[in-house]
Design a protein that fits this description.
The protein is of the alpha+beta class and 398 residues long. It contains eleven helices and ten strands.
Length: 398
């Protein structure tokens, strides 16, 4: 089983789950650090700063744009650096750079997301690449990315200098989810928006691209932040039409859902599966384990999201044989009183979440603290062992 085949398997249920929905296809990269020694690097390349070694996981997750439900993984890549590149970044074509993942991943996602009514590919600042803006959009396939570069505009000036003169159009308080380095809090954001036409950068790798690309920019600024807090300042570029304040706020609200990919990575690592504690000996094995962990972390994320009730079907996370196992387990786990019964609709994701949480040690009472990621992880691991045994039993009967 190759890493590529494992990644192909990520989307088996996602293809169906996205049908008829507006999907936010959120992509990002996470460094997976594994401990090594100078004489025992396990074949791992450099990541991050210092002597850190590990692999990199680039993941795209599908999220329902209307309710924020994670619908599954779409595609991505997991790679191990092979030494340092000596040719400068500016002298290499995009195909020879790691940054090609930002443009290749949306293209690979299009067949997986073909049944969606609309797709908005979303990413953070590292994806602000002209090649991406010029090549990735398509029919009902939009882009939304936080701006990194203060790009030159057709007609003179730059994006930053031009938009600084735009008046603010509205102000609103929003909830900010916790991200690495930032606690969850409320922020009062002011926004302004308009259209910008950016110029193609110089470079021989750019000459085949259009000379300009027209985008819409929504700028959200925290003008009066709390003392000692870094203010929010998001410059969001998108291919969506932004003709009024309501749509500008919609762009901000969609971008706020980007934190879901951060939560997925935390579930892979410290807050869930503790992937970085693995003692597997080779880089190839660790890359395969990372691919498996990404899929498992996605299911745990879906279960945590659904714990308080969800109309999503269990089939977005479980196969038909697995749902049959859940049916059997639910009958065994439920108690005799009403408070000990599964309160959710049969075969809903919330119903499955209740079962998995009970298997992870949660007592099931509504008055108890909701089950968290660790409880869900424990229940998921227990369930996988039972489902595997169920499969072996069926195979033996054939």
């Amino acid at each position: 089983m190759t890493v590529e085949r494992l990644i192909e398997g990520w989307s088996e249920q996602t293809r169906t789950a996205v049908a008829g929905r507006h999907v936010l296809a959120i992509q990002d990269t996470s460094e997976i650090h594994f401990s090594t020694r100078p004489k025992h690097r396990r074949g791992l390349g450099e990541v991050g700063k210092g002597n850190a070694r590990g692999v990199l996981a680039h993941v795209m997750a599908a999220v329902d744009a209307d309710n924020g439900s994670c619908l599954g993984l779409v595609t991505g890549s997991i790679y191990n650096r092979k030494g340092r590149v000596r040719v400068s970044h500016a002298k290499r074509a995009l195909k020879d750079k790691e940054s090609k993942r930002w443009t290749e991943t949306p293209q690979a996602a299009k067949p997986v997301l073909a049944a969606a009514s609309m797709v908005t590919a979303m990413s953070d600042r590292e994806c602000d690449i002209y090649h991406y803006w010029a090549s990735a959009p398509g029919p009902n396939f939009h882009l939304l990315t936080r701006m990194m570069h203060d790009r030159a505009l057709a007609g003179g000036g730059t994006v930053g200098k031009t938009t600084a003169a735009w008046p603010f159009a509205a102000t609103r308080e929003v909830e900010l989810s916790a991200t690495p380095g930032r606690a969850a809090r409320k922020a009062t954001l002011s926004l302004r928006f308009g259209e910008v036409t950016i110029l193609r950068p110089d470079g021989k790798d750019m000459k085949h691209l259009p000379k300009t690309v027209t985008l819409r920019l929504v700028e959200a600024v925290e003008r009066d932040p709390p003392a000692g807090v870094e203010p929010i300042h998001w410059r969001l570029l998108t291919t969506h039409a932004v003709d009024d304040v309501a749509m500008a706020w919609q762009i901000v609200d969609w971008y706020r859902l980007r934190w879901i990919i951060e939560q997925l990575f935390r579930l892979m690592k410290s807050d869930g599966l503790r992937l970085e504690d693995s003692q597997l000996e080779t880089a190839d094995a660790l890359m395969k384990l990372t691919a498996i962990a990404a899929r498992a972390a996605c299911v745990i994320l879906q279960l945590v999201q659904a714990r308080d009730g969800s109309a999503e079907p269990a089939s977005i996370a479980f196969s038909k044989p697995e749902i049959a196992v859940l049916d059997q387990l639910n009958g065994e786990i439920e108690g005799k009183t009403a408070l000990q019964k599964n309160p959710h609709a049969r075969h809903s994701l919330a119903w499955a979440s209740w079962i998995i949480a009970r298997m992870g040690g949660w007592n099931g009472y509504p008055s108890s603290r909701p089950p968290g990621p660790i409880t869900m992880r424990n229940g998921w691991e227990y369930f996988c062992a039972i489902a595997r045994g169920w499969t072996l039993r069926d195979a033996r009967l054939l």
